[in-house]
Amino acid sequence: TNLRAEERGLRELRQETTRTERQLDEITERWAGRLRALYKQGQYGVFRLLFSAESVTDMVRRMKYLKIITAQDRTLSDRYAVTVTDLGKKQTTLESRKAALEKSRSRIRATEAAIADEKWRQRILLARLREEKEGYLTSVRELETVSARLQELINQLSKRAKAAPKPSPSL
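Above: the chain's sequence. Below: its structure in token form.
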């Protein structure tokens, strides 16, 4: 169950990493579009925009919009930096979790191999014990047979001894 939890966590982290990579791609595309727009404006594009205003009010309005655009650029830049940092952390965590998972799998394989070896040794021991048991049972049967023969001989000798005339005591 611990291995399954690790695998599930790794899958979830991979999904998060993929989402973060997609976010980074989106931000990069937006930056690319913004940089193209800045390039097309040329070196003095902002100044041309401001100084081409028809009135002071128009210039203030244009400055207000430039501030908004600059704030959006700053936000985009901050999001990019945060996303890159987040992605780096997730990738580092992902690699360490992969390594930990592989280590767990190796331990499990080693434990399974040790269990298989122990099972094999137990089977061999059980086979030897069964052979010894069979040998002991054979010995017991043989001893019982010999014991029965001996008992029979003792009984025959007892009968002969009783049936034989007793020598009289001589004086």
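The chain has a mean pLDDT of 91.
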